[in-house]
Amino acid sequence: METKRRGIRRWFGITNTFPLAALAAFVTLAVVAVALGMPSEAHADHGGVYAVCPDPIEEGNTGSIGVRRSGHKIKSAFFFTDNRYHTADGDDYVEYHGYKVQSSGGESTLRAPIVTKEDTLPEHDETFAIGFWDDDVWHHCVVTIEDDDAPEIVHVSIASSPVDQYAYHNGDAIDIAVDFDQKVDAGADANLALYLGDEDDSVWRGASYEAGSGTRSLIFRYRVQPEDFDGDGFRVAAAATGDDRSPAYGFGGDIFAEGTDVPVEYGHEGVTGGWKQKVDGRPYVQETQIISSPSDGWTAYRANEVIEVLMRFDTDVVVDGDVSVELHLGVVDYNWDGVIREAGYLRGSGTDTLIFGYTVRPGDMDAEGVGIVLGTEESGFAGGGAIKAKGTDVERNPYYLGTGHQAEHKVDSSSPSVSSIRFTSRPANGDAYADRESIAVEVTFDERVAHKGALHLNLDIGGVARQATAEAPPSLTYGYSSVFHYVVQDGDTDIDGVGISANSLRAEGAGVYDSAGNTADLGHPVVPADPGQKVATH
């Protein structure tokens, strides 16, 4: 900042001509007294004489000082300027060292011009004295020169937007750009006022200086806290400059013209964020997924297996009481009746990730895959407890994205069962099987099954049990039925036809199971003797 001279001026009764030619256009030696409005300051008189002082004068403009004598006319006066104990000097105004002003008609108020000088250097408001002597008494005014070169705000804007294009969440940065018409320096304590909430019930938040000192644009940043909420969009408070050039409201701390200690003009009208600048600091679910898998590589969950659901929040949360997450299990053709299952809280309180679990019950079936219910005010979370931001009483946001059917998370809690047993072969001669002929029987299940070992089925041939066998295929294959074969032996005879006793099906090795690993129920009813299945080997 330019260093101001602070010279000492002395006043003696020396009459000067006006020092600047430009002033000649403003005043002549004979100045006619003109009333310039109500005075803002008047010093105590002496013998009825007093000075009529001007309002503050903007840099480069003019004002006037008046000499007044109550009830008497004044013919002339000598004016002097002085900067002792003041901040202005001769570079800021036209100096007088006994400048004479006189009236042609003997006016009761005689006025002398006060001329300030314009420059482009940002400065503090400065003062100097101007006055006159009367009977050895000094009558004067202290004149304030208002600097008009301080940086001014030309634009305030919201420089950020919500990451998810919906609302700012806990920890998100709200950035405000403040543009000036000159370069500025921001103090570390500079801040900008924001308001969140309804106009009648709004909450102040301070956006701290973030970047831009030494340029024409400053960035102020506020980090959203869990308790912050504004469903209509936050607003930047209007600002103003106080009488002492400090921020009256809207700003805090200090912002100066670059390289000086001259405060900026803080005034601006504020900004309304609107619906695109909503704020919702409540803990919200960023991710939902099913993290478990059916056991042992099976294609579906069986009864008593646990389906685990992960919910990752944007901040650490604490579970208080009974809380669960709703699942869709068994939706068929958009029939939603009876498909809600509640996965209860399992673990994770105090972190940003909670795990919920549902234990599959007998009878649960979902051939398309379980889904996570969309979170709303009415659905999604259940139970009488709460999820809160850690260290606060702020409850979680109820909204989160659900999922559709998760094909890799099917549910099958039912065991396969035998649906039918039938003979598929006929005697070669159309009457009875002869020695070395094969009797074939097909056993069908109610769903696709596989078996690793052999299956055996006892046939009743003339009251004697004979074992038909279905061999397991070379590789694991799922199908609805298996065919059993028995080769007729010499001595086998059945004139009524072969039958099958109840519950005569049995398995070797791993047994029969479906793709979910449910072991098949091999029970079946009696298959009566079939007259078309006679046996005669003699």
What does this protein look like?
- By secondary structure, the chain is an all-beta fold.
- The protein is built from no helices and 45 strands.
- The strands form eleven sheets. Strands 10, 12, 13, 14, 15, 17, 20, 21 and 22 form a nine-stranded antiparallel beta sheet that branches.
- The chain is rod-shaped, with a radius of gyration of 49 Å.
- 36% of the residues are buried.
Low-confidence stretches: 1-44
Q: How big a fraction of the residues is strand?
A: 35-45%
- What's the level 1 CATH class of the largest domain? Mainly Beta
How would a textbook summarize the main sheet? 9 strands, antiparallel
CA(first)-CA(last) distance: 130 Å
Q: Just name the CATH architecture of the largest domain.
A: Sandwich
- Number of separate helices: 0
Q: What is the CATH topology of the largest domain?
A: Immunoglobulin-like
What Rg do the Cα atoms give? 49 Å
Structural class: mainly beta
Please tell me what the overall shape is: rod-shaped
